[in-house]
Hints:
Layout: E1 4-7, E2 10-11, E3 14-15, H1 17-33, E4 37-43, E5 59-66, H2 75-89, E6 93-97, H3 100-113, E7 117-121, E8 123-127, E9 130-137, E10 142-148, E11 153-157, E12 172-176, E13 207-211, H4 222-231, E14 235-239, H5 241-245, E15 266-270, H6 276-282, E16 287-292, E17 305-308, H7 311-328
Parallel strand pairs: 1-4, 1-6, 4-5, 5-12, 6-11, 7-11, 13-14, 13-15, 15-16, 16-17
Antiparallel strand pairs: 2-3, 8-9, 9-10
Amino acid sequence: xxxxxxxxxxxxxxLGSAAREAVSVAAGLAEASGGAVHALVLGGPGVSGxxxxxxxxxxxxxxxxxxxALVEYNPEAWVGLVVEQVRSGDYAAVVFAATTLGKDLAxxxxxxxxxxxxxxxxxxxxxxxTVSVTRPVFSGKAFARLEIDATPALxxxxxxxxxxxxxxxxxxxxxxxxxxxxxxxRVRVVERKGASEGTVDVSEASVVVSGGRGMKxxxxxxxxxxxxxxxxSDVALGASRAVVDAGWRPHxxxxxxxxxxxxxxxxxxxxxxxxxxxxxxxxxAKTIVAIxxxxxxxxxxxxxxxxxxxxxxxxxxxTEEIGALRSSD
Length: 329
């Protein structure tokens, strides 16, 4: 019997889908090993109020470290606390989310523990005490299946790929105050710029509408904004690397190998040719719709539905039809 630890990250004192997915995946591994799930949350004073909800996804115990120095992510302050938790619990596996924070934190933890890290995995299971993972390679052109020959087995899961499944557990929360000297930290956060209020993060959205160079001009982005609004809430705007490099859209919207990896229920690619680096960031979306006037565009090779036509004609008509359907419901 072996327990599994899930690192549940918080943002602005709230636990999002990444935390729930990490706990849910850990619960699946613990069920296979006959152990229990423990979760670790780090944040500022009061973050423990949101931690009890993790019990609904399988966490039997939730340890919450609260300190003023933990309000913002700081690798110097966070990595040692995670390592201490791992070593004290003698865990068979540790699960992180492969978010921006997780991609920075998990390798640091692996280095201090001197164990390998299976990053950005899209499948994970445990059999006979061994953790096996599936992860994309060659920019998503193929998938590798690996067995982790180390204890604990460290994995980071691709956001939005694993469904957060409810499986009730005790969710007992215990709070501790780490001994941290904020003045001794060599790194400090001076400013954090996020999306404007009310904007859905592209990595968290269930629907993403992305635009590429086919939009021709940043002034035409209103077409995509209208389509986003017609689709309803929990819809985000995305962009290709070429668009971001041109300064048309902020980097926070970039989808691809050098941007954000997304796996929404619906991904609409408008005027995006489908370069390899872009496909690596969105090909795991459940349904992909491509709109492009070039019938030979690579994006159509991964699309479930393709519309060959001028986006300046197609998008307004699509927006109108979606709006009419939603208003009739």
